[in-house]
Design a protein that fits this description.
homodimer; alpha/beta; 434 Repressor (Amino-terminal Domain); Rossmann fold; seven-stranded mixed β-sheet; 13 helices; 12 strands; DNA-binding
DNA sequence: AAGTGGAACTGCAACGTTGCAGGTTCTTGT
DNA sequence: ACAAGAACCTGCAACGTTGCAGTTCCACTT
């Protein structure tokens, strides 16, 4: 078994600083390059002690497979691409997702590549680029639309991906989403419980899937509670903060302004409150606002704000988990998770425990 | 004169969906692979019309060099690694830097890879990993320390990098920094102009280089203005927000509390204001706070806050520009930029124009 | 003694690219 | 007419890895 053998090749470079390759280990062990390769991946046709010997030496010399070599040979990139719009920054939003994703990727050989696009260009471009050049093994996208062309494209090309937000394409794909129907219902119920009767909703852009969820939940709550829906369809949470402030000011100057507002994002809520106070109204007395928050800072802004926590870090983790599983060949249907909010924090039950989110698996 | 020549190789794969390589173009043009390669990089020993012909076809078929091939052959990765600490998120901080970096990289062939580390592990690990495995052409790091081991390491290994923040290693390296000396001086001057006489500073952790800058600027201002320095060395802006609030509450409960505070970060300022208001004091009447802000949201939080804008997006752009130039072989000394704040916004000159930052080149 | 079968190991080729060291024409000078 | 040189183009080899198709050797069967 494995007698020492002087290979024909000369010692691969001096002991220098060149990092070890399979060839180096092959030379050190007196084995062939192929054997070393197979021994390192624990192939069944390599002797047990040979494997141990090779693995020991590999560890000793700090061998790490050359990514370019693997990639060229196998096509496997060990890269996840996070595609995101970099010109609108929804506060800590992006960084939390990134944290979650990297946390999940840390113990794997995967790297995270950021693939940005600007609103001025086609959101499809970065996706097409990654798929065409096969520069990643999987993609994560956000800001999904009901008929999302990117989802269709990746799906048709059999490219693994996960989305932050659902679609209505009819395509089964991995996603993670926050339950905005429940959020809006909880928010409306809480406002009603606090005696509010004229409610408005500051929703996301109608182009995005979750616009529908939030407006549906809001509408349900309003109907069941028998209160008035004050239309506020001129502003969306993804608009510039100044614009939101202007629109909110106009809303509050109407003859019948709302006395309760449901708001889809923390930063929008800050603009909202600014407008409220400039209109001479007082938050918590004249108007209540329920908003989503992804950081405790929103609540620090005004103690009177009623908040529902959305955990983007969790989203990042779930999305990473989903793409990896998808790359691994798991069924898309099993990779869909929904974060369901359970309570509104602030207001009367101030003493109550701050609840966080539950995680539920759905089969769409 | 490029006569048509039927090469020995068979048509490389069917017309299928395989993406074109040099071989594909070589077959189409009837040229050799080497010629095509050289023609695409505009080498001098290739005929003008051949070059045009090759480039035309390459564009037609949407040729893109295979990154793994190039990387394996040349060692060039076309990757910039952004090394960051992912468990403390200073608001939009990170995402703004990322936006700036990606903006700068967009027109280049470079990809951005995020290389995270947690506070629990050695900050040196990710840097060592990237350098050892040569998985990027350049590195960007932040949170520099006076004697930064990472800077020393990369410098010794001749690895291109740029840092967000300076060091006191004596090593000439590319950096971008915000002038915290000037910031603190401006802040103190403004507080004095508003009649404040007992000033405190909420600075960054003493481990970081810019702690020295900020405390130095603060001290200068205090001495020149002949006012009192109220020591507040128990809290740093990079502590958890709740901890800052606690420490600030204690500060304000002292026999001689400050009537003016200079704060090194927007989110810390929010905690500060919370503590101020809970102590029964009023911002702008009993105490003034000057803080850095990287997003307009801080100012929306309390109109009474006095702010100095710090543009992290600019920082991202500068850092990217610096690493790229460094990779390109430019001297480190020429790649050092300082963003100097020019004014404090808010308070009496409310009507004045909000100034942004100037960019100055320094030779350390 | 010849044949079979399995365990353990091997070299070759290829992924796409580029540096290198030639080639092959054609033009120019003598 | 012929050497020298310019202008263009080319194979080959190698970067590090792995799939494939062997090869070697030994134990065991017939």
């Amino acid at each position: 078994m494995a007698g020492k053998r002087e290979g024909g090749a000369p010692p691969p470079a001096a002991a220098g600083d060149a990092r070890p390759t399979l060839k180096t280990i092959a030379f050190m062990t007196g084995l062939g390059v192929t054997t070393v390769s197979r021994a390192l991946k624990d192939a069944p046709d390599i002797g047990e002690d040979t494997k141990r010997r090779v693995q020991l030496i590999a560890r000793q010399v700090g061998y790490r497979p050359n990514r370019a070599g693997v990639r060229l040979r196998t096509g496997k990139t060990n890269v996840i691409s996070l595609v995101l719009n970099t010109d609108e920054q929804l506060m800590g939003f992006i960084s939390d997702i990134i944290s979650g994703v990297t946390e999940m990727l840390a113990p794997t050989p995967y790297h995270l590549v950021l693939t940005p696009y600007s609103s001025r260009s086609d959101p499809m471009d970065p996706v097409r680029y990654v798929v065409e050049t096969r520069s990643a093994d999987g993609i994560i996208i956000s800001q999904t639309r009901p008929e999302d062309a990117r989802v269709r494209y990746m799906s048709e090309h059999g490219f693994p991906f996960a989305t932050h937000g659902r679609t209505e394409t009819g395509i089964e794909h991995p996603w993670h989403d926050f339950d905005n129907v429940v959020f809006a219902r909880l928010a409306v119920e809480r406002l009603i419980a606090r005696g509010r009767r004229r409610l408005a909703l500051l929703a996301p852009s109608p182009a995005l899937t979750y616009h529908r969820h939030m407006t549906a939940g809001f509408a349900e709550g309003v109907v069941e509670g028998g209160v008035t829906d004050i239309p506020f369809a001129t502003a969306w949470v993804d608009q510039p903060i100044e614009e939101i402030r202007r629109q909110a000011a106009r809303l509050l100057a109407r003859q019948t302004p709302p006395d309760g507002i449901v708001c889809g994002s923390g930063s929008a809520a800050i603009a909202l409150v600014n407008a409220i106070e400039e209109s001479g109204l007082r938050l918590g007395r004249d108007v209540d606002v329920v908003t989503k928050q992804s950081t405790q800072l929103v609540r620090m802004f005004r103690r009177e704000l009623l908040v529902v926590d959305e955990d983007f870090r969790l989203a990042g983790r779930e999305l990473a988990r989903a793409v990896l599983a998808r790359i691994d060949g798991q069924a898309a249907e099993a990779l869909q998770t929904l974060a369901v909010p359970t309570a509104v924090v602030g207001g009367e039950d101030e003493g109550a425990v701050a609840p966080t989110q539950a995680r539920a698996a759905l089969s769409s």
